[in-house]
Amino acid sequence: MTRVLRLAMGSVAVACLVLALKLSAWWLTGSVALLADALESVVNVAAAAAALVAVRYSAMPPDANHPYGHAKAEYFSAVLEGALIIVAALAILREAWGAFFAPHAPDQAVPGLLISALATACNFGWATLLRREGRLLRSPALLADARHLLADVVTSVGVLIGVAAVAATGRLWLDPLLAAATALNILWSGSQLVRESVGGLMDEAVEPGLLGRIRRAVSTSADGAIEAHDLRTRQAGRFTFIEFHLVVPGSMSVDEAHVICDRIEAALKAEIEGATITIHVEPEGKAKHHGVLVL
């Protein structure tokens, strides 16, 4: 079992625990703001389960029908999670709208808030772990889950402060107002997640910092070549695909050109974990005098 898969399974367990705690807090208090917080955790459970399925599928090796592997399955999970977040936000807004016209004071506020605070602490600890491991493992599904949980933590802290203020001041209108604010924050988070995940599915180029590292690795390891042009990149989960044309002197033998290609591939793989490289060798007559010049 891979570490990504173990973390995805852990996310399902943590999401179920946090949901149980938040539902308990809402049941004790009757607060619509805490109900909004719990509804987001319902999404967390569904999203964590979807991420688990996607991680299992993305770990499958390439086959005849999927020669580039199955890593993009994680982007589908992230898109689904973003869509579920948006649905949860709309459900929360509906509850908040009804509560504006029939507000009520929270019951058993102290124990409810303590339980909700415990759930928030669990989310924060797990989100921190997921973010660190997701970056190391280059997993879009884990990073999406981490981002969602951290957004959940921020809104949960705001809800805790607000419900405490409602109990202390008796201003009942604060409760549905907090629920509505929570929904809007969740809605923004979900839309951002969908946008980034769709970018992965649409084969966006790697971010500028990584592209610069790729160009430097090619330039400094291609001694004997003339230039590299038509550099194309894309990201698919943990894998980075790099393609370019390498121009070499026309008199160079195939063996000599192959040695240069091997050296470039080794440099790129040392710089970028999970790099898959395709190099098309061309004679100097094909030089375009732009792209990556060999140092």
Task: Give structural notes.
The protein has 2 domains: 3-201, Up-down Bundle (Alpha-lytic protease prodomain-like), CATH 1.20.1510; 208-293, Alpha-Beta Plaits (2-Layer Sandwich). The protein has helices spanning 3-29, 32-58, 73-101, 109-137, 140-169, 174-201, 208-221, 254-271, and strands at 227-236, 239-248, 275-283, 292-293. It starts with a helix and ends with a strand. The chain has a 4-stranded mixed beta sheet with strand order 3-2-1-4, covered by helices on one side. α1 packs antiparallel against α2 and α3 (73-101) runs parallel beside α5 (140-169). The protein has 295 residues and is α+β, with helices and mostly antiparallel strands. This is Protein p34. One of its GO terms (molecular function) is zinc efflux antiporter activity. Residues 213-284 form the Cation efflux protein cytoplasmic domain. Residues 11-202 form the Cation efflux protein transmembrane domain.
